[in-house]
Amino acid sequence: MDGKMKRRLNYDFFMEFLDGSLAGILNMVHNDTTLIMELRGNKVVIYYRGGALFTITNTGKGYEIYHNPAYWLPEKKYEELVTDPSPEECVKNVALYKHQMDYYRSINPELEAQCLLQLVLENNILPGKSKTTGDYFILDIEYAYKEQGGLNLRFDAIGLNWPSTSSDRRKRIDMGITFFEMKYYDGAMKGKAGIQKHISDYRAFIETKAYFDMCRDMEGVFWQKYHLGLIPAYMMPTNLDDKDANIIIDENKVDLAFLFANRDPDSTIAKAELSAAVEKYGKERTQDIYVANASDIGYVLFRYKDNGKGQGKADRYIRIADYVNL
Questions:
Q1: DSSP-derived secondary structure letter, 121
Q2: Suppose 176 and one of 74, 161, 183, 240 were both cysteines; which one would form an S-S bond, judging by CB atoms 3.0 to 4.6 Å apart?
Q3: What's the pTM value of the predicted model, to 2 decimals?
Q4: Is 121 exposed, middle or buried (0-12, 13-18, 19+ CB in 10 A)?
């Protein structure tokens, strides 16, 4: 696998968060539901309001922590803020770092990026022990892949399709993968980052060995996120143990889903772009491309409706060929 693609952490780096010098940062994330922690192979990124609050890099001889001073607007207000904080300084001064980011976001909102992080929080973190969880766990965000002289693509999120019915949650094999693309308002519907480009990238990527390797990597990402507490144990069946946290992804169970956030339903842009895609590829070749509906106006992704027999029907996702006719 291309090193730039790998998301699973190596064992020593993983253990630094679980039971080492970076455990305080992991505990900080656990105790603050505005933060999310994403695995990047040789890095870990702590996100806040759509930006990287801290980037922790495994150097091979230890680690380095970086905070981007671009968030210090209009000027650095606190002498405690540094670009290379220690783990202890990250924890001690996190409120100050976040305050600077809050100010920055008041000027540079980047609403789609903030919405994407809320998607992770709502599906992976926020549901309580007595709440219904959705049919997905978000394994990764901002997933990029680039070949020399070939594919150059990016997916907003990768979700593990694990239906929330009790019978399905007892399964550990034949998991599905969904690539998510979020479009906030009507922005970026067309052009180099538009709907048709995403569909073309998706169709090409799932035919590569890199996609097969990604599925194996994501199996490890799920295991690590579970043991790091980034996917809480209470979302799993009570009989889940360390061994059962191993899952198997069926790379043939894959699809692409668009998430349209806060767009005007009377706008014709999305339907026009999706209609053009159906015309280009044909209805049969777009059967695995959907527009996703959340739970009413929330962020939790429900794909299946229980039929009362522990089996679900995929009626919460609309195939694009049907969506354009709504």
A1: I
A2: 161
A3: 0.94
A4: middle
